Amino acid sequence: MRYMKVISVTSGSKGGTGKSTIMVNTAVLHAYMATRRERLVMLLDAEPQAATSTLLLSRKIYNELRKGSIRSLTDFLTGNANFDDVFYVLKFKEPEQFYIAISSLVAPVDKLKQLKDKDINDLHSKLSEFIDELTKNLDLEAIYIDLPATSVFSSLSLAVYAVSDLIVPVGTPDPSCLISLYTTVMAIRDYIKPPPTIAPVVLNRISSSNAIEPITNLHYKVLYNRLINSGVFELREDENLSIARSAGLIEVLSRSLKYNSTVRALLKYAHKIATYPVEHTMRTISDHSKVSTMIGTNISEHAESILLALLRSRSRKPL
Questions:
Q1: What is the sign of the dihedral through the CA atoms of 235, 240, 246 and 251?
Q2: Which residues have a Cβ under 8 Å from the Cβ of 56 and sit 6 or more positions away?
Q3: Is residue 64 exposed (0-12), middle (13-18) or buried (19+ Cβ within 10 Å)?
Q4: Chain centroid, CA 298 distance in Å
């Protein structure tokens, strides 16, 4: 069996960071590369409500999933479908023909209610089973999982982190996003054993006007690096990309954005993630009884002083 890895993207509980856009572009680029090697990449959309990734890849599949006319990953996780009934292979023709598989939690409301009742152990077990079946039956090179903006202590989030080998954190130049992402990464390191690798943070939508955090007077790149300690990759704010997102385009496939500097930077990061040297391994979720408490047991004094400055200035809690 050739190597395979599971890659998840998160922005913690903060929405609107552009994480789904980054995940789709990265997965699409990897799928293009994998097709040349006669292998397959899957994107697993774990956002049952917004489902941005599903919409970007196929509006038709999104609509059919929402109506319940085709099976979704929700059906598998609730024991109502086989693994091979809940994923779909899409064909793209540009820049050259390539394939990408998709599986999504999008489903009618009554089915989503069944999913909500599942506990952490059940979800982790079923997700692990799904990945095992895919690996046995498909020549998968990677599975990309797009998580919703939600508390790190939700059953779905913890179950996804526990099947992941690489976590891609996406943040913006915003204190609440920084705090949420820090809390999420600390929870992953504390509760998932062995912890997955944390990739360099994508500092998205950075510009000359928002780069400095006013309370600490430090550049957000410095803050993210000091708190999360995995490196930082900057993506500049770009009006052309905002227009492309509004039009439902996948930026790395757009001919009009081929020479755009931000898209080229996104391509560079996507290639880094696609070739990241990790392999899939079994993980467990520890200390179930404590997952409703604040974590961060190994926080340094310097990181603590940064967090306190940000929290006190805004009178808000980390989660």
A1: negative
A2: 20, 21, 24, 248, 250
A3: middle
A4: 25
Alpha carbons 169 and 188: distance in angstroms, whole number: 11
pLDDT per position as a tens digit, 231-281? 999 999 998 888 887 788 899 898 889 899 999 999 999 999 999 999 899
Residue whose tokens read 């992402």 = 181
Q: Which residue has the tokens 């095992």?
A: 132
Identity of residue 14: K
Residue 106: per-residue pLDDT: 97
Considering just the CA atoms, what is the radius of gyration of the chain in Å?
19
101-140 pLDDT tens trace? 999 999 999 999 999 889 999 999 999 999 999 999 999 9
- Distance, in Å, from the CA atom of 196 to the CA atom of 241, rounded to the nearest integer, reads 31
Query: Which domains does the chain carry?
Result: 5-314 (3.40.50.300)
Give all strands (DSSP E) within the chain, no chain letters: 5-10, 40-45, 88-92, 98-104, 140-146, 166-171, 192-193, 197-198, 201-206, 212-213, 218-219, 232-236, 284-285
CB 169 within 8 A of CB 112: no
Q: What is the mean pLDDT of residues 211-217?
A: 91
The pair of structure tokens assigned to 296 is 């961060």
Quote the CA–CA distance of 72 and 178 in Å, as a whole number: 33
